[in-house]
TrEMBL record:
It comes from Astatotilapia calliptera. Homooctamer. One of its GO terms (biological process) is 'de novo' IMP biosynthetic process. SMART domains: AIRC. Residues 159-306 form the PurE domain. Gene3D superfamilies: 3.40.50.1970, ATP-grasp fold, B domain. In the C-terminal section; belongs to the AIR carboxylase family. Class II subfamily. In the N-terminal section; belongs to the SAICAR synthetase family. This is PurE domain-containing protein.
Length: 318
């Protein structure tokens, strides 16, 4: 990429990311194609014609995959410089799919951002002479990558969501939040406490989870007059989210106890249990790359679903 951007310093991270497309054709050394060339080729693979929708899906997926792998390698103090991703078409579903493994031949890795320490297949490509000593160096580089890859799927820091409900009548609402948190790999703890009827116990529970150093998001689930969220927010430096279980009869009135906060409180309010879990994941994902990657993958899947739905609707309208 740098040779095609003269004047840009080596090690510079392009933002937004830059992507190039190549057509898999061994006989012609995998020529580089523009998006226009790909569209004009009108390739038909397994019954699927590669049009703008498919090109957009491949492009968006490529960027998302790079960002997730880059985030994972950053936990090992290693820069992902670039990588290649190959796509194909599923014969069964006629969908665009990732059609290749991602391994040490797919990327360039610079530990500590230092090219002289590169550990990918480029080490072999740049050998001036293939000797037993040189091959041992290549072997050590591949072994380093093999050992670190295993660590990429390990969380860097444990985290959790603590759900505080005003009464057991709120359990069903809390279970929806817990289920959504589980989809991001975030454990949840459910507790029952009332800031109105037992503020001392509420603050004791709060202190219990503040004392062990585990990154925590508190979620207050209280109907009617929400005292939990404001009391928690006013007494902890940890993030607090109010997710009140509103009812059809008094919901429009009750919600104000979650929205109208005294000065000095930073308690946010999210009405949807699923959106509440997503917000908690966005907070915890700042320190946990696995949570962040699940969020990024969810964003990609939503985008692809909308893209395919739009394509289907356009086809029906023709």
């Amino acid at each position: 990429m740098i040779p095609r951007n003269p004047g840009v310093k080596e090690g510079y991270r392009f933002s937004p990311l830059k992507m190039e497309m190549f057509f898999k054709d061994d006989a012609n050394n995998d020529p580089q194609w523009s998006e226009e060339q790909l569209l004009e080729a009108k390739l038909c693979l397994a019954g699927l014609t590669i049009g703008q929708c498919e090109v957009d899906i491949m492009s968006r997926s490529t960027l998302a995959i790079f960002e997730m792998v880059e985030k994972a390698w950053a936990t090992q103090n290693c820069s992902l410089v670039d990588m290649k991703i190959e796509f194909g078409v599923s014969v069964k579903s006629r969908e665009i799919v990732l059609a290749d493994v991602i391994d040490n031949d797919s990327w360039r890795l610079w530990p500590a951002g230092d090219r002289s320490q590169q550990t990918d297949k480029q080490v072999y490509r740049e050998l001036k002479e293939v000797t037993p000593e040189a091959m041992q160096m290549v072997k050590r580089s591949f072994e380093w990558v093999s050992e670190r890859v295993k660590l990429l799927l390990e969380p860097q820091a444990s985290s959790r969501v603590v759900l505080l409900m005003g009464s057991t009548s709120d359990v069903a609402h809390c279970e929806k939040i817990r289920k959504a948190c589980a989809s991001y790999g975030i454990p949840c703890v459910l507790r029952v406490t009332s800031a109105h009827k037992g503020p001392d116990e509420t603050l004791r529970i709060k202190a219990e989870y503040e004392g062990d150093g585990i990154p925590t998001v508190f979620v207050a689930v209280a109907g009617r007059s929400n005292g939990l969220g404001p009391v928690m927010s006013g007494n902890t430096a940890y993030p607090v989210i109010s997710c009140p279980p509103l009812t059809p009869d008094w919901g429009p009135q009750d919600v104000w106890s979650s929205l109208r906060m005294p000065s000095g409180l930073g308690c946010s309010t999210v009405l949807s249990p699923e959106a509440c879990a997503q917000f908690a994941a966005q907070i915890l994902g700042l320190r946990d790359h696995l949570v962040w990657c699940k969020l990024r993958a969810s964003m990609l899947n939503t985008w692809v679903s909308l893209k395919l739905a739009d394509k289907k609707l356009q086809a029906c309208s023709l």
